[in-house]
Specification:
Strands 7, 8, 9, 10, 11, 12, 13, 14 and 15 form a nine-stranded mixed beta sheet that branches. The chain has eight helices and 15 strands. By secondary structure, the chain is an alpha+beta fold.
Length: 287
């Protein structure tokens, strides 16, 4: 396995970063998770737009242009000979000194890892996951803006720890006002009486690329969709609940906080959206 390490391709076991890298010292950096389906990088430009917007927002100077970054992604995939897999693209503030001042980090550091991926077994897509709501709150836009896909994932990790303790696949995070925000690394949707709902990102959710693709699919299929805030009560009483994310795609939820959702397995709209999503992923992409 070959890793792109700031302009060079090195073997996995040789891919090392400095202990002075501010990504390591402070979580100062940004990242993307991207899928490759049948040799296509799914929605590459959207991921790069989000990455470059995150960089601009935190005043991180990108060492590569978007085209150069796209070339680096393609070359890393080619060298690893993968047609289906997952790309992790990380841009840290780079090596500096022990102080947190980013001015001490003259150059950002880019890493690209390409791997095979299967986070949930295929049965999980039919049976649905169990889920719980957890106590860590999603930060609102005035703190660490959820639109920035930063390396500061401690909050999400605390959510994952609570999910693990509860023995469930993904958890539901609320915002500080108690509205449903998203999962630890997925966006959330519910279906009630034929209408699909997802929280607007301003209440505290990443603007997921998969979320965007599902919103587009709903429009294409003529399914009514509303972006509006909702609470756990709405989740418990929904006909269907599902998460979306680059790694998870569209995964049904069969139980939340002990309440059975719908028939207790993937509902018809969730299954249809998953099918339609899997149809578009191989045709939309780069190369
Ligand atoms: N929310 C968070 C916090 C995430 O980390 C992710 C994963 O990237 C998502 C949602 C889903 O976003 P996407 O569909 O772009 O992978």
């Amino acid at each position: 396995q070959w890793i792109y390490l700031n302009g060079q391709y090195v073997k996995k076991e040789d891919a090392k970063i400095s202990v002075y890298d501010h990504g390591f010292l402070y979580g100062d950096g940004i990242f993307e998770g991207i899928r490759i389906y049948g040799g296509n990088i799914f929605r590459c430009r959207e991921h790069l737009d989000r990455l470059y917007d995150s960089a601009k927002s935190i005043m991180l100077n990108m060492p590569l242009s978007m085209t150069q970054m796209e070339d680096a992604l393609c070359e890393t995939i080619r060298r690893n000979g993968l047609r289906d897999g997952y790309i992790r693209l990380i841009v840290s503030r780079g090596p500096g000194n022990l102080g947190l001042d980013p001015l001490r980090c003259p150059e950002a550091f880019v890493v690209i890892i390409v791997e095979q991926l299967a986070i949930y077994p295929e049965e999980a897509y039919r049976d649905g996951l169990r889920s719980v709501s957890v106590s860590p709150r999603r930060n609102l836009p005035d703190a660490l803006n959820p639109k920035i896909k930063s390396l500061n994932y401690l909050n999400n990790i605390l959510v994952k720890i609570q999910a693990n303790l509860a023995g469930v696949g993904e958890a539901i995070m609320l915002n500080s006002q108690g509205y449903v925000a998203e999962g630890s690394s997925d966006n959330i949707f519910i279906v009630k009486r034929g209408v699909v709902y997802t929280p607007p990102c301003y209440i505290g959710a990443l603007e997921g690329i998969t979320r965007g693709a599902i919103i587009e699919l709903c429009a294409k299929l003529g399914l009514p969709l509303r972006e509006e805030p909702f609470t756990l009560h709405d989740v418990y009483t929904a006909d269907e609940v599902f998460f979306t994310g680059t790694a998870a795609e569209v995964i049904a939820v069969r139980e939340v906080d002990g309440r059975i959702i719908g028939e207790g397995r993937a509902g018809p709209l969730t299954s249809r959206l998953l099918d339609e999503f899997r149809k578009i992923v191989t045709v939309e992409g780069v190369k």
